[in-house]
């Protein structure tokens, strides 16, 4: 009797695994990266494509416009070059510059600028020790910069500036929503600390 149940149990386990994979299923790296001749010319394949960069930035840009907010957005390649950028009319120079700095910082950190900001707020001694590094590399530890990761591979980074942060809405939330919409599930955002 026990041997007769084995195939049934294996089938049930397989169905359970398939159903549980759901949103955590692997993403298609080639769908979002440069390929073919473009990858050969760049000597890389794990770089965000212009189409993907445009879709992510345009999604966030539209979310901001829907809220009557302006924003500036930069998408960088893993080597730090600008793939796509845009700014709303009326953006101040600081909003544009901080968007670029946030993207660069997320690229260098390989993580959320907001998460780094939180750790600095919670450990002022660490903040003081790392301030020379921050100045040396033009790092901007503030909410609004995220790495762009597909299948655990960094394909770029994105930064936005110009929207005041809150727990309900911010540059970072706008970017995160856009990444989810275009790429699929993303890691949760760092908590908003006041």
Helix content: 40-55%
For the largest beta sheet, what order do the strands appear in spatially?
2-1-4-3
Q: What Rg is obtained from the alpha carbons, in whole angstroms?
A: 20 Å
Structural class: alpha+beta
Output the number of helix runs: 8
Q: Tell me the β content.
A: 5-15%
CATH topology: Beta-Lactamase
Name of the top-level CATH class: Alpha Beta
Q: State the CATH superfamily name.
A: Haem-degrading domain
Number of domains: 1
Low-confidence stretches: 1-25
* SSE succession: HHHHEEHHHEEH
Count the E strands: 4
CATH architecture: 2-Layer Sandwich
The outline comes out as globular
> Between the first and last Cα atoms, what is the distance in angstroms?
62 Å
- Note the main sheet: 4 strands, antiparallel
Mean pLDDT: 82
């Amino acid at each position: 009797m026990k041997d007769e149940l084995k195939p049934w149990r294996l089938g049930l386990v397989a169905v359970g695994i398939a159903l549980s994979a759901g949103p955590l299923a692997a993403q298609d790296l080639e769908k979002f990266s440069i390929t073919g001749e473009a990858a050969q010319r760049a000597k890389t394949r794990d770089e965000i494509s212009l189409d993907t960069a445009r879709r992510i930035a345009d999604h966030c840009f539209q979310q901001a416009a829907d809220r009557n907010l302006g924003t500036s957005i930069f998408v960088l390649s893993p080597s730090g070059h600008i793939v796509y950028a845009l700014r709303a009319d009326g953006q101040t120079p600081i909003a544009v510059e901080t968007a670029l700095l946030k993207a660069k910082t997320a690229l260098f950190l390989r993580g959320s600028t907001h998460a780094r900001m939180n750790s600095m707020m919670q450990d002022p001694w660490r903040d003081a020790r790392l301030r020379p590094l921050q100045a040396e590399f033009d790092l901007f530890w503030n909410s609004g910069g995220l790495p762009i990761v597909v299948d655990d591979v960094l394909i770029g980074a994105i930064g936005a500036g110009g929207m005041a942060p809150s727990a309900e809405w911010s540059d970072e939330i706008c970017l995160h929503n856009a990444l989810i919409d275009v790429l699929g599930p993303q890691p949760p955002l760092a908590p908003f600390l006041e």
